[in-house]
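thread: overnight batch results

M.L. [08:02]
morning all. the overnight job finished for the chain we discussed friday. pasting input first so we're all looking at the same thing
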Amino acid sequence: MQQQENNKLANFLHAINEYAERQSIEIEEETEQFMSRELKKAEDDANREAYYFIQHELSKMKNEISGDYSRKEMERRRQLLEKRAAITAEVFDRAKSRLLQYTKTENYGKKVTLNARKSAVMFGDYMGSAEFYIRPGDSVARDHLHAVFANNAVHETDDIKIGGFRAVNLNRSVVVDATLDTALDGQREWFLENSGLSISEV
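M.L. [08:03]
and the structure it wrote out:
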């Protein structure tokens, strides 16, 4: 009887040991699988983070390079604009100087007379009420205008710097601008288009 009890206890202990061993093996396997999964996940996360970091750094680098290029390009264009403006100013200053010399010639007086007669055609019957405006001190223009229109008023105005005249007929609300100032200024757009001073050039 005692022997049977001992056998039962031995069998019971053996069964418990076998169960414990199986549980231990299963836990180890599950632990290894869990560790393997976690390690793979950590590697994937690390790879993903490294990829995003690299992409971020590349994007940052591209933006910096692009920004630096844009700043340099803007500075280059600013310098070209300043250079073009300086050249244009010099050309037109020279032209203005030449035109001022021209206003002292006989041809200038003839041109004033010709333009005055053209104004008369435009004003027609209202020519008598037209008034003329000239550069201060422009005696050549004054004399030639008086020679054609003795009865029309001639005024001096500071907004005419070179020569010619502006005829105004208030009764018809008509203005004839025959100033050398306007003629010269009208050449600016043509000059910029045809001078070869393109902003794309270095």
